[in-house]
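Entry:
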Amino acid sequence: MKNLIYIILLAGITLVSCDDIITEKPIDFLVPGSFPANEQDALAATTAAYTRLHNSIISFYYGFTPSDIAFQGQHNMRPISWFLDLNDNNGDATALWQSNYQGIALANTVIEYVPNVPMNDQNLKERLIAEAKFLRAFYYFELVRVYGEVPILTEVISNTDELIGITRNSVEEVYALIEQDLIEALSILPSEYDAEEKGRATKWSATALLAKVHLTQGEWLEANTRAEEVIASGMFGLVADYNSLWSQNAEYVLMPDKNGVLVNENVFDIQFEQDERNDYKQSWVGSRDTEIVGATNAVGGGWENMLPTTTYLNMFEDGDLRKEISYITELDGNVLESPRTPGAGPITGKYLNIDGDAPKTNNGSQNTYVIRYSDVLLMRAEAENELNGPTNAYPFINLVRERAGLSPLFGLDQTSFRLALRKERATELGFEGHRKYDLLRWGVFVETVRSASDPHLAVPASNIQNHHILLPVPAREREISEGSLSQNPGY
């Protein structure tokens, strides 16, 4: 949170064309109070609020490493995944906190200042404010799932003195703000955008996120209702070929479903642009195999921060078409082996990004899915099962399984359906930043890691403690508050 006071300045020196929510360039310095002053400034401020999404690699990593599907290679035993010396000075825990509060500060700038900006297009003004509310909700959702209680800041912070004495709001209060922001946003946001503005929050991305927020709290009826609204919109579908989703060339391209109808499976994603906003995913999930030509800079090469477990491999049923892209054992005839983590080798193939020229180092531009339509279907299946048992849940999970080449489920009781659903979420959404959050909301994260059979999870399994369901509140933030920010138990 120490950087909050600088974020207004960042928004003030950032100008972004309305037809590109990624590319930005500095302009003359503008101080708070004079910015945003016009429609162009309002657009720039709103676009700036999206930029914290590009810092999401730690959140992405934290979303499934470690879990039953992923482990961290031994070259870099990060405390948040190995549970070794995890304390309030941890860099990852600090980065997650600060990045999301920076995003909140940028969103607050729009929400507080844009209403008073003179604009001819009032619909645009309302839309920009709604986008900012969606983003504020998104960032708070990241925070509350990772830290539990966090301070609610809904106004622009102009001086660190304003942070002295702040306290953490309850989890219930944070979720209430998230829900309020999303409900207000979805009532205004458009259902879709023109091609040049893809990547902005829509009515349906807000509705789908709201469904996930309710699901996380065990509010099954509300989650079911919101997921049903997305499904009933007719805006989305499952593409026939699961493996075609993982391509830079597939971004915002309608693809055929099983009936040949062109559909969109992307509900919300984070945009990246080569040489502008670069992603880190390929490097983080890639292999250190020395036989890969180009090593970490090549397609398939990387740092082994997120490797698939054998448990994940064994979750795929015979004939599951998703395994081909999800669990890669060799590249160009070379069986992948790690020189740094004995026994490791396979990687996920979802971020190989082999289209066109191979990305150099971290200079990739493959967008990151945040919510796909299959996620919405599985959310609806889960909520239906928890409400009424599996009878009305089968159609939604079986659509996902059918696309994967698997036979439909039937004849299950509520408990066995619940277990089947949990497996299906892993095989459908694996390595997309969901698994740990799923295990946490199901209340089984610690026991899942403790009981892990994969040898690469032996150290995390022996080190994990119950308090590790939350990260520590960063020491620096507690210093800024002069001790008023409490710490999570165990740290």
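Strands lie at 14-15, 25-26, 70-71, 255-256, 262-263, 266-270, 307-308, 330-331, 334-335, 368-372.
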